[in-house]
Amino acid sequence: MVSRLTRSLAAFVFVAAGDAAAQQACTATVREVVDSARVAAAVTRYALWDSAGAVQFEARLDTLSREYDGSFSYRTALPDDAQRGFRVLAKHAPTVRAGRDFLAGVPGVYEGVQDALLNTLRDSLVRLGRASLASPVDCVLRTLREQALRRQLENLRRFERKFGPSSVKLNFVEVLANYGLQFLPWPTLTGVDASGSPRPWEAVVAYRTTYLTLTGVTGDSSKFSPQAVSTAEFGLRHYNFGESWGTGSSTLSRMLKPGYWSVGVIIAPESNGAMRYPWRGESRWGAYVAWGNLKIGWLSGHDRRVVVSREVMLVPYVF
Amino acid sequence: MAFQPQRQQWPGEDAILLVHGVGDDSPGESAASVALKQALGASAASFAIYDLRYDEINDWFAEKTQAAQLVTWLRDRIRERLGGDDLGDTVANVAGDVVWPIMSTSARSALVQALTSQLLAMALDGPNVLTQRISIVCHSMGCYHTYEALHEITNNAQLHLRPSDGFRIQNVVFMASPVQLIRTVSGTIDTLVPQRNRLALSRELAQPQQNFQGNVRRLVTSRWVSITGNLDPVGGHLLREKLAWAYMEVPGQQSFIDSQHATDIQSKDQLRQLLTSSFQSGSIPKVTPQNPHDWSGYISRHATDLESWLVV
């Protein structure tokens, strides 16, 4: 794998762009990493190492030189708008992946060199005033830490989307349902994934009395009047983590690109009306889909009809 | 607005992260920061001091679950038991806000990521990896988050903050830490705590360290300090009695237990003086209650210690 990368990539450059404008971008080549490490070992006289440790260190540097030979490319200078998150990272996926390959390409070799410089030789280098010999490794670390920081901030932005002020408030039963899902032994739809990002789904279990439908007026087939329909809702809500979703400044833009949508089943009693028990009589079953706050559903059974609603909680904790 | 870590240029090679407890989100420079600068004296100017507050994240979860009222109810009950003074408020706040990181894996992850983001930002703001020195001073619930975050960065290779990545914490100073208290309580109800085994405090309390290619690398290189007061229940004491089930004891830690007083009268002489002056002036003797959990109080009492630990 390493040789394939070596052949295919032209220049080995680490670039840390830095989040703060004032921060200087740094660059480092693999040759600089290796050369500075060799000098560091020499000036500290392989501090604290036995001969085996020194031999292992040199062998690792040789491996890095041989396998990469200054021809490995790892460019991570993401554009300023990289804060937008994974979408931008995805655009740069080939280079990011190449960077990971560099760290994992010869397992433990680069990390071993880094650890030797930053731990074993650390005190000696600082005492000798030669901390700058760690600059190439420092540059690699800054690059990787900037990526890690961007990932974490993106995760936190997603947490805010799912749990923050513009998310849907949960009723008491939903709180219990979503709490219970955390105990499932396999990776669930609703928890946190291995990278620390929240998963986009949450359970919907609600009683709604805000669905509306149109019914004909007795004696006048040309007229219709709205009627409330009470339902029980069981479904899943999905949060759209894309940065342009759920953040529109106008009502229209928020309708077109809402922060969430949901889908599920609804159960309604045999007759329409507000505040009815959904399982009363011959219940009607159906499905609903919500796009942002707007919902539309369809009920089957003896009185089929289309129902519409808005995502609204009338009584805190309840429905 | 999404959480953003504090960024600043370091004036020198040292930085301190102040991890606040809950309900400590007043804008501007924190009282703890002011007290710490006083403790550091002239050396304060060479430190980059960061404040980490995370009440906003707690609030997301409280509002989402509409549990704010439940938490308020819980706080009120605790206040009734402990009195409506500052201490009652503090204990009540801690009890309310410990709910999220214990009962919600999402809240837990978000809070840890807020803290690790701040550490990443500090590492990026600082000078060369070999010369930067970072210390943490935390208080109350901030100690719990610090404990979890330090173990997280030691184990998570993706953050590049492990000891083998050259990242070190020079000193960590826990003030009124509820780590053991939370450990005991969450252990008592462990079947109700989702994925409790992923909490660092579900295991034996220990300083974070990494086993790297056969070498043990400690994250905290100089001091792991615990300071609490003998009247501070959050720190594991009740009426001057140390509660073994609530007091944090980590192997290798330096422990300090302050002798605290419920009021500003701390000796018989002071009391005699107060009564005498009151008798002479004909005024009512003025006795001010002290909040044993107050962070600035801890910092002021240990000003000399902090200076000797933090100033290299």
Which short descriptors sum up this protein?
heterodimer; A: 319 residues; alpha+beta; 2 domains; six-stranded antiparallel beta sheet; two-stranded antiparallel sheet; 10 helices; disordered N terminus; B: 312 residues; alpha/beta; Rossmann fold; six-stranded parallel beta sheet; two-stranded antiparallel ribbon; 11 helices; 10 strands; 41% helix
Protein topology:
The complex is a heterodimer of chains A (319) and B (312).
Chain A lengths: L1 H7 L5 E3 L9 E3 L1 H14 L7 H18 L17 H6 L1 H13 L3 H12 L1 H6 L7 H29 L8 H10 L19 E17 L2 E20 L11 H6 L3 E9 L15 E8 L2 E6 L5 E6 L9
Helix pairs in contact in A: 2-3, 3-6
Chain B lengths: L13 E6 L11 H10 L6 E6 L2 H10 L3 H15 L3 H12 L1 H5 L1 H21 L7 E7 L1 H15 L13 E7 L3 H10 L20 E4 L2 E4 L1 E10 L7 E2 L2 E2 L11 E5 L9 H14 L13 H7 L1 H8 L2
Parallel strand pairs in B: 1-2, 1-3, 3-4, 4-7, 7-10
Antiparallel strand pairs in B: 5-6, 8-9
Helix pairs in contact in B: 1-10, 1-11, 3-4, 6-7
Instruction: Give the mean pLDDT of chain B.
Output: 86
CATH class descriptor of chain B: Alpha Beta
Element-by-element helix/strand order of chain B: EHEHHHHHEHEHEEEEEEHHH
* SS strand fraction of chain A: 15-25%
Instruction: Count the DSSP helices of chain B.
Output: 11
The neighbouring-strand order within the major sheet of chain B is 2-1-3-4-7-10
Total strands of chain B: the figure is 10
Number of domains of chain B: 1
The helical percent of chain A reads 25-40%
Secondary-structure content class of chain B: alpha/beta
**DSSP summary: helix tally of chain A:** 10
CATH architecture of chain B: 3-Layer(aba) Sandwich
Q: Summarize the main sheet of chain A.
A: 6 strands, antiparallel
Largest interface: A-B, 57 and 49 residues
**CA-based shape of chain A:** rod-shaped
* Outline of chain B: globular
Calculate Rg of chain B over CA atoms: 20 Å
How many beta strands in the DSSP annotation of chain A?
8
